[in-house]
Amino acid sequence: MQSLINKLAKDYGSTSFVPHLSLVAGLMATKNEVADLSARISKVAQSLGPFTVTLSEYGYKNEEHRCLYLLAEPASLTNIYSSLSESFPQVKNEHFEAMPHLSVLYGHYPESTKQQIIADNPYSPKSFEVSELSLFLTNGSADNWRLVQEFSL
């Protein structure tokens, strides 16, 4: 997936980023609150075992961070979102649970460009195992995102 993201970023003058499936976002925490946030994520991670995610097909929206993406089969994530919502109630209010996805291109491009990218980069459903959750600091552009901590499942 990283090679596709890098290729599209280079070809379309966008930002490259680490492939990820966002489970929770918008967690505002001061420097002093990060330890509490990490403890909450660690608790969730300990309650989960590794799980499988299947990416099925392309989709796109007129949004910078959901410009072009691969849809994740929601059935495999239902229990994950349920577990997360106990510690992070905002999961139920976010768009991630409603449409789990893995973005492959950030930016604002015409629909015709997105359709051409899809035609030029065929995709067949693929599954992968998730064995850890990661906490990222996502202030600013994707170039500046920083890994804070990883949590084994």
Largest sheet entry: 4 strands, antiparallel
Give the termini distance in whole angstroms: 22 Å
Give average pLDDT, whole number: 92
Low-pLDDT sequence parts: none
Major sheet strand order: 3-2-1-4
Q: Could you give the topology of this structure?
A:
Blueprint: H1 2-12, H2 34-47, E1 51-60, E2 68-72, H3 78-87, H4 95-98, E3 101-105, H5 111-120, E4 126-130, E5 132-137, E6 146-152
Keyword list:
single chain, 153 residues, alpha+beta, four-stranded antiparallel beta sheet, two-stranded antiparallel ribbon, 5 helices, 6 strands
Mind explaining what this structure looks like?
With 153 residues, this protein is an alpha+beta fold. It is built from five helices and six strands, in the order H-H-E-E-H-H-E-H-E-E-E. It has helices at residues 2-12, 34-47, 78-87, 95-98, 111-120; strands at 51-60, 68-72, 101-105, 126-130, 132-137, 146-152. The strands form two sheets. It has a four-stranded antiparallel β-sheet with strand order 3-2-1-4. It has a two-stranded antiparallel ribbon with strand order 5-6. The longest helix is centred in the first third of the chain and has 14 residues, at 34-47. The mean pLDDT is 92.
Characterize this entry briefly.
The protein is an alpha+beta fold. 32% of the residues lie in helices and 25% in strands.
